[in-house]
Amino acid sequence: MVARRKFATLKSFLNYIGVEGDRTIFTWVSASEGDRWAQVIKGATEKIKALGPASKMVKTVA
Amino acid sequence: MENIETKLREEAQRLLLEKKADVIIGYEKGTLPLTATPCFITRPEEAEKLIWNNLCTQNLAKFVHDLITAHKNSQKRVKPEDRKKKVIGVVARGCTTRSIIIHLQERQYDRGEVYIIGVPCDGYVESKKLRTAAGGADIIEGDMEGGQIKVKTAEGEKTVALKEVLSDSCRTCRYNNPIISDVMVGSPAPAMNPEAEYDQVKEFEAKSIEERWAYFTKEMAKCIRCNACRQACPSCYCPTCFAEQSMPQWVGIGEDATDTQVFQFMRLYHMVGRCVDCGSCVAVCPMGVDLRNFLKKIDKDCWEMFGNRAGSSMEDMPPLGKFSENDKEDFIYNP
Question: Is the CB of residue B302 less than 8 Å away from at least one CB of chain A?
Fold first, then answer.
């Protein structure tokens, strides 16, 4: 439950500095909810694919 | 101010004579003109060194934590019954007491280990602002009287209004009088302008995401990773900072732009519910990075989401250490 507050502020702060806050995806899934788990992962991958590769705060190793 | 200074010295002397405090942390005159520097007083006759004026910048809660930690470490190998207690006296303005409250909430030391000499505060002078106002050259001589600062540089003399060079944090300060104190010196200072505290943040929020990112990268590009902000911050007291950990290494130590961004981002984010807006990090930054813009956003989120202002009350718990059923949930992903 404490994670909830951390993620709320993290997402908002990332957005504020200009990193797409949509990349932060947070939810609750129980180990017994197989179907929901599949849906969450499917949805998350779709969202990230739509955003494309991250370009901000990415370290390039020369 | 003179009156407060005299009372402050008397109080410090009394505390040391009566052995109510082993050391007093306060401010003394700095070696450069128009500066004040933290000092540690252990003998009653040294109390004359203490000063209190608009040049006292640093948040002294940092030293309270440092001294208590050092003392506790030195007592580790002593038998429990022989351990000595050390009481730290500290000259504290509003933001210093807020930092002390955060330390107490985070169980860093007991209330009895710190003796707070509360002083009213009407803001401190931001040295970088003063320098700019004086024309950018080194200040050779300076004098402060009745809201006016006379500055002499190699290029000539100038008079600057105190109001013009006050720190941004002080202009919109909500707690310029101590929240907790064992003894209060002087009468409470008049309120500043807390209504305007989030104006800058609101303005920044209204910008487009690319503009915000451009500003963040521009500011962080100035950073030289000297860690002065971390050393000055009373809330940054971890024995090993994440920036120096090597197992795992969270962030690179080089001059890579991304490493700098990540370091700053993580340090800023660690301030949720812990930044008291004392402005010490901004004041010590040699490169003039605009840290306050980002810290204030964290403060605003904390207030708007959890109704908590860091260190504003002894009864509060750290906001990230608890939850409420009314917390907003719109950020939670539901497929």
Answer: yes
Which amino acid, one-letter code, is at B200? Q
Going by the DSSP 8-state scheme, the letter that residue B205 receives in this structure is H
Please state, for a pLDDT cut of 90, what percent of chain B lies above it.
68
Taking only residues 212 to 271 of chain B, the set having a beta carbon closer than 8 angstroms to any beta carbon of chain A reads 212-217, 252, 256, 258-259, 261-262, 265, 268-269
B180 within 8 A of B314, measured Cβ to Cβ: yes
Comparing B91 with B329, the larger pLDDT belongs to B91
For residues B264 and B221, what is the distance between their CA atoms, to the nearest angstrom? 11
- Which value does ipTM take for this structure? 0.89
Domain boundaries, chain B: 1-121+172-194, 127-165, 198-321
**Element containing residue B52 per DSSP (H, E):** none
**For an interface test with A, which of B331, B332, B334 has the most A Cβ atoms less than 10 Å from its Cβ?**
B331
**Which band of pLDDT confidence, cut at 50, 70 and 90, is reported for residue A62?**
low
pLDDT tens for each residue of B21-46: 999 999 999 999 899 999 999 999 99
A34 touches chain B (CB under 8 A): no
